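Collaborator request log, item 7. Partner lab (contact: R.S.) asked for a structural prediction of alpha-glucosidase to inform their binding assays.
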Amino acid sequence: MAILFILLSVVVAASVHGVNAKHSENVVPHTATRENDFGIEWWENAVFYQIYPRSFKDSNNDGIGDLKGIIEKLDFLADTGITAVWLSPIFKSPQVDQGYDISDYYDVDEDYGTLEDLRELVDEAHKRGIKIILDFVPNHTSNQHQWFKDSVSDPTGDYGDFYVWKDCEKDDDGKVTWPNNWLSFFGGSAWQYNEVRKQCYLHQFAPAQPDLNYNNDKVVEAMKDVLKFWLKFGVDGFRCDAVLALFEDPEFKDEPRSNTRGVTANEYGYLDHIYTVDQPQTFDMIYQWRDVLDEFTYANKSETKIMMTEAYTGVEKTMLYYGLPDGSRKGAHFAFNFNFITSLKKGFNFREFASTIEKWFVNVPKEYTSNWVLGNHDNRRVATRFGPELVDGLNMVSAFLPGVMVTYNGEEIGMEDGQVTCEEGYDPQAIKDCATFNETSRDFERTPYQWDNSTNAGFNDGSQPWLPVSDKYKEVNLAAQNVAGAPSHYNLYKSLVAYKNETFATDFSNLDNLAVIEISMRVVQIIRQATYDQYILVFNTADGNETVRFYYSGGYYNVELASNEGNYKVGDLIGNSTLSLKPYECIVLRQVYLAGGPSVAYALPYMFLLGLGALMRFLNMKVLIFCSVLFTVGVAITGYQLKGDGPNSDWWKTAVFYQIYPRSFMDSDGDGIGDIQGIIQKLHHLQDAGITATWLSPIFSSPQVDQGYDISDYRNVDPDYGTLEDLKQLLDKAKELGIKLILDFVPNHTSDQHEWFKKSVAKEEGYEDFYVWHDGNVVNGTRQPPNNWLSEFQGPAWTFNEDRQQYYYHEFAPQQPDLNYANPVVVEAMKDVLRYWLDFGVDGFRVDAVPHLFEDPELRDEPLIDGCTDATNKNCLDHIYTKGLPETYDLIYQFRDVLDNFTETNNVDTRVMMTEAYDSIEKQMLYYGNVEGTTNGAHFTFNFVFISNLQRGFQVEDIVDAIKTWLSNIPTRFTSNWVLGNHDNHRVATRLGKENVDGLNMLTAILPGVMVTYNGEEIGMEDGEVTCEQGHDPQAIKDCSTFDQTSRDFERTPFQWDGSTNAGFTNGTPWLPVSTKSVEVNLAAQDSEGEPTHYNLYKELMEFRKNFQGDFTVDTSSPIKVNETVLQVTRRVDNDEFILLFNVGDEEQSGDFYRTFARYEIVVGSSGVSYKKGDPFEDLKLSGHEAVILHGIGSNGGR
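Returned to partner:
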């Protein structure tokens, strides 16, 4: 069978960067137009253009934009390349909220025209290939709607419960006692008293916008009828407004405090809206509306009618608006992605920008179509929010990213917010308080469109517009920019839309083929691997010139699009990886191949796939082509140093912290329990391994109910482990060997044997409220705990003390009573503990269980999680009153001050604090410091994504997502860290597979920041074998039937030093049995020079980190995959590049990888790899679970 290749000639501009211009005539062609025969629907790569009708074009000079005005401008929209127009509401309305208060869903408001005008608009738009989308406002109507009037006048009639009514009390003074504490989005109570009906109705927005009652089936059917009416009318779909508020808790329970700082009791943000937004029924309602649209599409054999939803909510909830995770129900065709609005602020940095993109595509399932929203009528304009200089780059990013692009009218010409006074304004949430109008009003982004520089910017013929025209219209208007060849926002926007429509028409939304890489502190690179081509966007987000090296896979790159007034022009050809970018410059590149050039070999597979694909389409055949998905973890480093306050303030930022579980490390005296002298004996092992600092799990005086996490004396050593003198000897020896010593600080609770608790029980003066005490409740003569709080170890979190005749609170075991940090005396006592050990000479602290330090002072019941009914199950409660309270972070900041003051006063190396918090990643970031950056907290808070996100059988995507989950949230001023295991989780070799131990250690070693290793992971130890009878874990041994699932004893079995009895741990009977695997897996067997072992590899990794001539703390990383089972992580600084390749699969993998150097050699290889240090590495070839770290050699420039 012959394959015919037809090569179309292209003309490339003679201006060339990095390659001689004579090559330009030999560029392999780029097919500009592709048949859209891949089953892609019209909306999946579309550009949706939001028109705010009131401000778009006024055709009759009454000061208000209208439908006729939009019709006049349809040619402009067609010329721009717009796919679909979404109209903000044009239905009948009193205009209290500019049309979002609808009094008739079936008619057009006279301000905008008539039904006939709308019919003409739909018809004329369709003639031009433009779809029309209406704004569907289902949550509420106007209080002037006939439904509401009937509901008021006849409570028992057909419309009596069309709205949400509740009884409420109004006293003689007119004061109303509301049904509950719910607040409106616009501030104040969400309830309004109706004098006629003598009840209160719910309004989540303005009082003039009463909420519909979707628990009434008649309401559901009535709103479906609205959809059906407009579908028959001929519209192409709906934007569904404020869908998150459709349903409310049927029991109308009070909402809890949000604990958000700086918010008054009257503001919406004062409450955590667990009962008024994103209720489970809400998603089902969206799915029902989708059914209406799909049934119409099917019955009428029409093009797909689409639905897009607006919900400012978390990304997990946003995904539910798309449909059920199992695919059994479909919802919105796309739910608006507001990350560019909610996550970015003026002056954003490269990491925040990349994180904004990553937050979306880490969470969106492959089968959903992404979308990118830069602005809308509810948020300040892009040019105002970020600066006019960033308009082009942001529009380019929005067009370049896969899926739907959404543009608010005016953003295509770079309009800024207009100037509006409170007296001129209309926004109902803002005009009620002129003192805050400038901060709260949405009128600024709604000023009239700027068509030209004539009176009123061409919006109308001179009458007073409903809002004033911006005084910037003479400089910024469409007419001035719509000049052929002129470097303008609008001309670039047209080019972007045309390019998007042509280039990505067959690869509209594939996020697997997307990479976001920060290639310097200010420059972001986005890679899209389309069906046949590779495209790269490079964006300098800063106000200075930047010279950078970008990631590319060889060959040459043509400049396809370029922002205005940059160094690069469309048609320039780039032949190496170096770019020089002006401030805010953004370019889009496409990989091309030069006949006879150095990359001609790369053209062959490209041409083969292109020709084969064309042939198969011509023959109407289907073919499955296996290709590598180019997906890179890029980490580019710019070497900068942060100033510190000690002789070596930054030692910890690139450190390897080694956790020792003392009870299981080394027993020196034969009692079966590891001890401090045993650690001293083995310090040479830590030095040999290249460890920077060792953290000791608790060694303080303790009854050992929870293996030392129940402390009875913070200032002494438990006899099991030795004495204070032993600890001093350990400290001195560690310092002699250059190893820092970190203690485990347990501030949340003490032992019930602590003197403080004994004195508190006795109500001794000064100790009465050292702990959290309460009388409890008496119900039907039976004493009960104060509330429903549960312990981390299950069961009530309250225990009654007979001596004091009160309950005390314990987040963990009953023998671990919680300290009361609302008592400033407790705070100072614990600060004194820190100072004691700092004076003793330790180098810092690991702070245990920090989310639990504070509790709600009102001791309110914690609510059940949606869908969970077992109030005795800890996991069924939403821990809003016992975890992560705002005071917690402030206490951590106070602890940090203690350490910083000691460091500064004594002129010593930085004393560090690391915190343990199994909590949401947003809350974890708060332990680092406050959002404003004015207060420091932990030097780092443990990053548990490799523990929580990875399971046995993990895929490349799982690692990618885990890394992105962390890096997309951590601010640039904080130092990352990577934790593979600890004493509370199954060992890495057991949890993730012993075959992956080397690769995972290599991964954590190459990632930026701190590396944390649990003792034994360096030799690949697996979990030991422990029975319930042998176990000691207090949460597990109380129920032997679940011991195997809940016990932490397995990961705590003794360290395996050699193959002798008890693995060299003890001469006695070990406190936990030594693993039966110790004969094969032990340090002595692996510590043979030159042998390919886990331990020797680990030592090589430590040497690699120490010799790396860059800053391991600065992260510019974005994980992507090379193929289905191979991960690549790249670290670059100055002229050095290091690459990790890790095959997580069972089968051998070969092919290519992303490179910028001419050749590479092996630096480190996993213990079973066939390569040796210094071997050349030309092409990817790795057996199952093998990993290598490569070093780029020679000049950069690709292959």
